[in-house]
Amino acid sequence: MREYKVVYLNKGLKFSREKDLAETQETINECAAQGWILQQVVSPNDLGGAMVGIFYKEN
């Protein structure tokens, strides 16, 4: 059975896409270190804004 988790990948709005992507990568790595597997990244647009990660873990 799979357990799912939804995580905000970038907290707060930054005016630098590079900073958003760096924070996103850091959050993904933290979840992966805890045994979560990234299934999908959802973003409302390519210009910026919130990015959400869908993670799962096999139980």
3D structure, described in words:
The chain has one helix and three strands. Strands 1-3-2 form a three-stranded antiparallel β-sheet, with helices on one face. The protein has one helix spanning 17-33, and strands spanning 2-8, 37-42, 52-58. The mean pLDDT is 87. By secondary structure, the chain is α+β, with helices and mostly antiparallel strands. Helix content is 29%, strand content 34%. It is elongated, with a radius of gyration of 12 Å. It has one domain (2-58).
Briefly, what is this?
The chain is of the alpha+beta class and 59 residues long.
On the 0-100 scale, what is the average pLDDT? Answer: 87
N-to-C SSE string, H for helix and E for strand? EHEE
- Main sheet strand line-up: 1-3-2
Q: Please tell me what the overall shape is.
A: elongated
> What level of helicity do the residues show?
25-40%
Count every helix, treating DSSP H or I runs of 4 or more residues as helices: 1
Number of strands: 3
The main sheet comes to: 3 strands, antiparallel
Instruction: Supply Rg.
Output: 12 Å
| Poorly predicted sequence stretches spanning 5 or more consecutive residues | none
The secondary-structure class comes to alpha+beta
For the terminal residues, how far apart are their CA atoms? 5 Å
**Structural domains: how many:** 1
- β-strand amount: 25-35%
